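In the current project phase, the collection of sequences with tokenised folds has grown. A representative record is quoted in full directly below:
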Amino acid sequence: MSTPVPVNDLIAASERTLADQVHALARARAFAEPLIADETLDSGENTLAHADAVAAILRDVGGSEAMQAASYLVHACVHLNRPHEVIAKAFGENFATLAVETTQLMRVQRLSRGALSSGHLVDDAGVQTETVRKMLLAFSRDLRVVMLRLASRLQTLRWHAASKTPVAEAMARESLQVFAPLANRLGIWQIKWEMEDLAFRFLEPVTYKEVARLLDEKRVEREAGMAQLRATVEADLRAQGIAATVQGRPKHIYSIVKKMRGKSLDFAQVFDVRALRVIVPAVADCYAVLAWVHAHFQPVPGEFDDYIAKPKGNGYQSLHTVVRPRLDGDEAGRPIEIQIRTQAMHDHAEHGVAAHWAYKEAGAKGYAGVSASGAYDAKIAVLRQLLAWERDLSGAMRPEGLPASGATDLLSDRIYVLTPDAAVVELPAGATPVDFAYSLHTNLGHRCRGARVDGVMVPLNTPLQNGQTVEITAAKEGGPSRDWLNAELGYLASHRARAKARAWFNAAALHATVARGREAVEKLLQREGKTALKLDDIATQLGFKSADGLFEVVGKDEYSLRNIELLLRPAAPPQDEVPLLKKARSAHKGGVLVVGIDSLMTQLAKCCKPAPPDAIVGFVTRGKGVSIHRADCSNLREMAARNAERVIEVEWGQQRQETRAVYPVDVAVEAADRQGLLRDISDVFTKERMNVIGVQTQSVKGTAWMTFTVEVADAARLARVLGVVAEVQGVRSARRR
């Protein structure tokens, strides 16, 4: 293990000694070298040497300089406390994201191989498709992550072959069953074929050596004959005015074995052991060469394929034909495969997606900054190829007896769709355009009014499919529809999107309540001639954090406007013309001060059940003393209208904390009826140390109406407790009666 190098020293050294180097590749290697030069991978290979080799592989297949640079930064990540932050500071956000995500994918694959080696079947469909899923997820963010992993795995296999050290069976099978098919889908034949041969070499060494021995037999004689044939074909084609280049095609042992096993052939019956590749300038030349070949050689029936007119799913194009040449010697009459293609087709066949994918190192759209302007069609094609590869792989690994839908169901919980800018969006299966809009931006989801899927207008509750391109039509302003929250209508499949829509309606309801409370308070200020007062100051004096907090409780009818009136104009002094009033005050033992009358009997009105600090008014009854009502009591208003002379002023007396009285108040709760509702609401009062002395409940058509009688010492505290009750599941409103 090398001695840790301080992160700041690394960055400073990189910036100071490499100030004259503008290429990220050289800077990345200089940054990582102190960290990984003396390190070894799990395979035993030196880490820096591995990174050098990976960068070379990426360069050979047309990978960008950014991908090559990332091959070093990936291995530096494990030595950094905050790798994303450090690499972003030294190289930029794009490099940091690429390195960190590749590191995460390596960890996932390592865990997967560990599961295999600890007892899972090698061909376990669940394990393999989960590996596929992780690679697809990585691709959905940045295709370069997949490219890095392919190159790294190929180098690991090369190192084991060169050092003659064994490879774990799980890694070899993962290379053959996951990595090589992925390279095939991306059309990177150069990596695909070599990886297949190396993995097969470790999995079936006896068969590999036997086929290799058969290929080597009479190799000198065969190559001499093929050299003569190449020269003859190239010269004759040039004489016909076709600027053709003729090459021998490499022989790949794994493809030969697959063909032998798939078609039950002997080695001598495999045609592509002897093969030529003809590369010409234009498509028309391809068919001209084909006509010349069939005119000068004997075609083998049933062995012709036109992949130019009908390309393979991954974009591969070429003409394939098998003929029998007329030559003297050992090669006479032996079949030979000839492939005919243009230079562009050849580049794509060798390097696949890496040959035409233009990576950019800045910007926020598309894959890790790739804008959609020039590579849109390519991105869609590659995405669909990976999705098709996923289906191929899951189908091929279907356990015996499992229904056809069983394997694909393992990957059915997520889908991948495209924005108009060709960025990939991951959604739950069954997601709709509304889910898509909410995944991009909450406000876009609220304003979603229409959608085009692959250019066609569709209803907003249309389930999306893998690989589709979705474009949202949005209003300039507005909110979601109530129908979206109806699960039966199928507008939202994502729990997150549904929560966002529900939050919008809750906020709208709160806004209406605040507006109603503001209107009531402002009307009161107009009546009192106090419109110059600041609403926030009034709210603060009444114990609220903001004016909106005051408006909310007023709008919910949980706070009496009488409290604001008392703040604006203190109680007027007693009027001498009221014969019942005197100047003296005396405290009643019940806690109510009645102005001017000693030892006057008082009682709390049962109709409104006042409690401190409610604004209260006294009403002199006939023979029962003074009945104490809340100032906003409707019964009091009716009695005062008939007998105004019996209304007297009263107020709560001061009590010591240890002897504070409690007062019964009624709380009305409306909720959706469910099992355990009464228990949950009662638990709130218990936790808040409020004694419940009575409960009345009634349920009508699924709605529960409850009245709780609780004892409180302070009605202001009750308002806060009711806020907690309102948060209980199913509760629609909780207010004091």
